Amino acid sequence: MSLRLNPDYEKLLPKMSDEEFDELKASIKAEGQHYPIVANEDLEVLDGHHRLRACFELGVEPDFEVRKFEDKLIEKKFVIEANLRRRHLNKFQLVELGVPLLEIEKALAKKRQSIAGKVGRNIQLGLVPNDAKPTLTKSKATAAVARKVGVSTRTFERGKKILEKASEEEKQKLREGKTSISKVYREVVALEKGSNSTEEENAPYQSEAMTNNNRAKENEIALALFLRKLVENEVFCPSCGSTMFQCTKCHKTLKELLQKKI
User: Fold this and answer.
1) Which residues of 86-113 are buried (b: 16+ CB within 10 A; e: fewer)?
2) Which residues of 122-161 are buried (b: 16+ CB within 10 A; e: fewer)?
3) Residues 6 or more apart from 37 whose CB is under 8 A from it?
4) Do residues 151 and 168 share a domain?
5) Parent domain of 54
6) Which letter, b or e, does each residue of 41-70 get, where b requires 16 or more Cβ atoms within 10 Å of its Cβ?
7) Cys-Cys crosslink for 158: which of 165, 185, 249, 253, Cβ 3.0 to 4.6 Å?
């Protein structure tokens, strides 16, 4: 049997440019493989896809090692984390690797919860000692994965939304570093609000507008009461006796303003 590529795992690989691949081939030709290719027991490549292709093209017998994983999820997790360690990636490419890693972490957490539930029941039945506590993590999966791939939680969440909503053209620009996550995210959000807004989404803005209208009404009433007090107390200039407080712009007196308000 010989090494073979797994298409599902290849999809997880960050794209390598032609120049990078040529440099890899030149390095292997001149110095050999610096790192062995890692494969599972079925000889599917887990780490070293590009090295294997380079060896094929050079006609070189590849060096490889076989690793056994107790779970397919753990195996897939290894594939992603191997790419995180080896490649120089920008933030969007890190998010691209982080999204499938997040799904894996969620699935593993679900398994741990199932095991923990069985342990808890066994404790109640006296089948295991009381110190056999369930191992449950309280940290949020998204924050944990964001830390693992090396971006902030906010950047990870924005990148995830871009992967779900943005065009392939925009994603490619991000992979090539020709635009930024924040810029594309703003465009995605603006497009969503423009074409897919619902009553529920607009509710906060409508509520705010109603609040502002109520405050304006209350202010108008308070101002009218204040003006009435000034007029009733006959505030006037002590030097000439003229009524004080008129608008500096339209020169209306308080009485005129009051009549207009109430």
Assistant:
1) eeebbbbbbbbbbbbbbebbeebeeeee
2) ebeeeeeeeeeeeeeeeeebbeebbebbebeeebbbbbbb
3) 3, 45, 47, 48, 51, 52, 62, 63, 64, 65
4) yes
5) 1-87
6) eeebbbbbbbbbbbbeeeeeebebeeeeee
7) 185
Same-domain pairing of 178 and 124: yes
At 51, which amino acid appears?
A: R
Residue 26 tokens read as: 């030149």
Torsional class of 44: left (φ above 0), alpha (ψ -120 to 50), beta (otherwise): beta
What distance in Å separates the CA atoms of residue 166 and residue 73, rounded to the nearest whole number? 28
In this structure, the answer to whether residues 96 and 146 fall within a common structural domain is yes
- CA-to-CA distance for 218 and 149, rounded, in angstroms? 52
| Strand locations in the chain (E) | 37-39, 45-47, 64-66
* 129, 139: one domain: yes
Whole-number Å distance between alpha carbons of 111 and 104: 11
Provide the β-strand partners of residue 44. Answer: 4
The answer to whether residues 62 and 104 belong to one domain is no
Domain match, 95 and 192 both: yes
User: Per-residue pLDDT tens for 84-125?
Assistant: 876 688 999 999 999 999 999 888 888 877 766 555 555 555
Amino acid present at 90:
N
**CA 207/CA 212 separation, integer angstroms:** 9
Predicted model pTM: 0.60
Q: Please check whether residues 110 and 182 belong to one and the same domain.
A: yes
Beta strands across the sheet bearing 45-47: 45-47, 37-39, 64-66
What's the rounded Cα separation, in Å, for the pair 262 and 113? 67
- Summarised one tens digit per residue, pLDDT across range 50-89 is 999 999 999 999 999 999 998 899 999 999 998 887 668 8
